[in-house]
Each structure stands twice: as C-alpha cells, then as structure tokens.
Amino acid sequence: MPSVGAGTANTEFEVLTGMSMRFFGPGEYPYKTYAKTRTLESAASALKGLGYGAEALHNNGGNFYSRAQVFNNMGFDHYTSKEFMNILQTTPKGWATDDILVPNIMESMDTTEGQDFVFTVSVEGHGEYPTEKVLEDPEIVVSGVEDEGERNAWEYYVNLVHAMDEFAGDLVRAVEERNEPTVLVFYGDHLPTMNLEAKDLKSRYLYNTNYVIWDNIGLEKKDGNVAAYQVMADVFERLDIHAGTVFNYHQQRRHTKNYLADLELLQYDIMYGDQYVYAEEGSPMKEGHMYMGVKDAVISQVTEQYNKTYSIYGENFTKQSKVFINGEKQKTTFLNNTRLDLKESKLSDGDTIMVAQVGSSNTTFRTTKTYKYNAGTLTEMPPEKDAPENGRQAFVVEKEEKEK
C-alpha cells in the first residue's frame, strides 16, 4: 500500500488506475489534483469498453476526497454515496456501518441487465480509535495490553474489523443468491493509526495489508504479494481480460527489465506529456457521463398539519434530502425514507417545491421533479430549458465554473 494510517484515496487511485504513487510528489493526492479536473483511464473505463456497467459506492459523503468529480472523470456510470443511502446505523464515532452497503450494491448491479464492475469503499473502520471506554459489551475483548487507553483503542478497532468481516460474509451470501458469475476482491487500504512500528508486525512491514479474492467460477487459489497498483491487472489476467493501457502494461512488462522506470515514463506521458501512447487510436476517456445515484426521490403529497407545519410524503428520501421552496433550501427534518417535515417554512399558493439530495458545500446531486403548490394540490412543472440531466447537476456546475 502507498500509505499507512491514512491516505485511503491514494490506495484507491492505485487500484483503479494501475498507476503507482511512488512517482507523485510527497503528500500529493491525485484525487485532489489531476484526477479531479481531467479524465483518466481506469478499471471502470477499461471494462466499460468491454460492455460492462461501472458502478461506484461509498457510505460517506459524495464530495469526500472529491470522489464525485474523480469517479466521473474515470468513466463510472453511477456513484451512490451516503446522500442516497437510508443510513440508520452508525459507529459510536458517527461513521456509517457497512451493512448498508449490501442492498445498495445489489441495487447498483440491477441497473443493467449485463455484467457489472462495482467499486465499493466502506467507511465503518475509519479512525480515530478512542482511548476512552466506548463499547459497553464488546463481542471481542482485548487483553494483554497494559496501557488502558491503548487497550480501549485496540478493542474498539478489532470490534470494527469483526463487524466488517460480517459485512463481507453478508455480501458473499447476497452474491451467491444471485447465481451470477462473480469475482469479489476485498483489500485493506492501509494499516490503522495506532502508533504502529515495523517491529510490532509479523511481516515487519508497515505498508502490507491483506487482500482476499472470492469467486464462484472456479479460479485456482493463489497466494502472493502484489502492489495495490498491480492488483487489477492481476485479476484481469486471471479472467483473460486485456484492456486498459496501464493494466496491459503491467501484464506484459511486470517481470521485465526497466519495468518501474518505464512505468514512470508511461504515467508521465498519460498525465503530463504528449500522450504518445494514444497517438494511433486517441485517448479512450474523452468526457465523463456519470450520474449521482441510481434512482430518483419522488414527491407524492404535501400535507399541512394542524400546527401549521408541513409534511412531504414520497419515496427514497434520506437524511441528506432537503426541501426547496421557490429555489430556496429549507430547514428540513428527516422522519423516514417516505416523509420529510418542514417546521419553520410557509407554503403559499403558486410556490414551487422540490426535494434535492444535497452533499457538502451545498452541492445538489439529484432532485425530484418540481411541482407548483396550490391548496394542497401539486402540479408538475416542466423542466427548465437547458437544465442538466438529473443526477448530473454537480458536474455541469463544475464544468461551467471551469469555463468562466
């Protein structure tokens, strides 16, 4: 792995692109620099070229590490972030638990009738790990650590790992029930922030984590060490997939002289050079066409309550659903996935109303249809001329800001 204690996005970058972080500047996050603003080949674009759907999921905010922009630039079809998930359970530190991912992964796979590449980032195990006693009745009790604060931190961490193990088992069972040819790759992005030193580890190497490959197609079991930037090329090789410029490079050159030196040249040519590697056929990634979420929220009814408050009824609401009246965001109370309440707003005849899935920095990711309100009756309004496609609002705004 390229980092320890933090840097999830850099491990993601290596896995998805096949590029190595060793050829970037110290402390650089490509998600915040190059990949945020320019298109880039990835496992998603490579597999889309073979007819796969490409889905991304994360049970944290869509803007975190600029993932919405990055996944769009990498060629994904949809990105389901926490703004689209009905998250009911969180860790004591407030991170969404990973059990919410299983039904959302299944839903993403159902967006196409064919094969899918689904890239999922979990957040349940995210640090920091409290030194005070947090778990009243932990399933796993840690002993043998003299310092109480350190023991509490490890106990909290290992119970998170236990919960993530259960998520992995639930995902395998859900995939088995679909009875579709499937390969699952689980990997750890980095070791935790626990003041670890090399001498504390059996491997003596702080940058090693475990990965597991599960399949139902009879692949031969193989153990071995592999860098994060090599893992997709390895999986592709085992599936007889030869797609993607950098992945093909790994497959053909991994055991040859000047492998790393030439990888550095290839990365430079693709990102900062003249792209000689694309001279004959052109770059396979021209422009992103990703949508946020895979389904719309829906407004079915607006009811005025006895205390002069309003309830909005519908479908697919989440805690990140916000009501807009005449284009202005309202203070919105989330009751459940079918009801939102307005306790401080006033609706008058002729007002327009809609619900948006809103991320950090007030980014609108996706909206319901807009309705005109009149004495409790809703009339659907025609979309504005030149309005962006629903689910692509954030990317149109981003593009317009670049062009100013």
From TrEMBL:
Just give the chief location class: membrane
Gene3D superfamilies in alphabetical order: Alkaline Phosphatase, subunit A (3.40.720.10)
Q: Which Pfam families match?
A: Sulfatase
Q: Which topology term describes how it sits in the membrane?
A: Multi-pass membrane protein
Chain spans, region Disordered: 378-404
One GO cellular component term, please give it.
Answer: plasma membrane
Cite the InterPro entries for this sequence. Alkaline_phosphatase_core_sf, OpgB/LTA_synthase_biosynth, Sulfatase_N
Q: Where in the cell is it found?
A: Cell membrane
Give the record's keywords alphabetically: Cell membrane, Membrane, Transmembrane, Transmembrane helix
Pathway membership = Cell wall biogenesis; lipoteichoic acid biosynthesis
Q: Which PANTHER family match?
A: LIPOTEICHOIC ACID SYNTHASE, PHOSPHOGLYCEROL TRANSFERASE I
Q: What's the name of the protein?
A: Sulfatase N-terminal domain-containing protein
Q: What is the protein's species of origin?
A: [Ruminococcus] torques CAG:61
